Amino acid sequence: MARKFFIGGNWKCNGTLEEVKKIVSMLNEAEIPSENVVEVVVSPPFVFLPLVESSLRPDFQVAAQNCWVRKGGAFTGEISAEMLVNLGIPCVILGHSERRSLLNESNEFVGDKVAHALSVGLKVIACIGETLQQRESGSTMAVVAAQTKAIADKVSNWANVVLAYEPVWAIGTGKVATPGQAQEVHLELRKWLHDSVGAEVAATTRIIYGGSVNGANCRELAAQPDIDGFLVGGASLKPEFADIIRSLTVMKSQL
Ligand SMILES: O=C(CO)COP(=O)(O)O
């Protein structure tokens, strides 16, 4: 079953108003394949979401980088999933490793967030991934399976979930996973989904790779059968992002 390629740009906590306007113009002018071929989502910091949502080309979508785990209320500093829906923001990134490690978000907390965001109609890019220490001790699959299980325990409909495998050691380090390393985990994850959730979910859920993806390394990664796109950090702030969107399609269409 065909899975539409998915490219996310995670801007993280970057950008001034002027820089954001420049990135949006750059994206608006970029020549990229039709939205029938590739789904593109960019994720600016919360404060820039309305600006980006209203000025970005209509064939790209926007995503928030986080949201609160339940309905809003007395949770100072948080942004609720309902508010995102209210502003017409269709998608949210949840469980990013920076939040898991710096803000102690547990697997269960991330699972609850994913379930709540889906319940109000958001699409979710759910991030998982192992640390270098976990990889070196041979527990990569156990770690990502536990992270995915915590989501699967709370979610019954996977239609609006994209799973982002982002090995922590590859994020922002320039040390991209080799195509073989990434494919191995993506394939194992798909098998896990098959055995633990179901054949249909395993066949249709996009599993995208994140961690030091750039214009130079994306083609080889994109050629892997179980890599359905990318979640791009640093390179999503640069014109290179358009190359990543393009080269993915070129590569897959040649297969
Ligand atoms: O964390 C990432 C995307 O969510 C990846 O970041 P980099 O592409 O900067 O390594």
From TrEMBL:
Q: This protein's superkingdom? A: Eukaryota
Named in its record, the pathway it takes part in is: Carbohydrate biosynthesis
Q: Name one GO cellular component term.
A: cytosol
One biological process term from GO is: glycolytic process
Gene3D superfamilies the record matches:
Aldolase class I
What the entry lists under SUPFAM superfamilies is as follows: Triosephosphate isomerase (TIM)
Q: Which CDD domains match?
A: TIM (cd00311)
Output one GO MF annotation. triose-phosphate isomerase activity
The record's keywords, sorted A to Z, are: Isomerase
Q: Which HAMAP family match?
A: TIM_B
Q: Which NCBIfam families match?
A: tim
The record's comment on protein family reads: Belongs to the triosephosphate isomerase family.
Subunit annotation = Homodimer.
From the Swiss-Prot or TrEMBL record, give the protein name.
TRIOSEPHOSPHATE ISOMERASE
What species does this protein belong to?
Salix koriyanagi
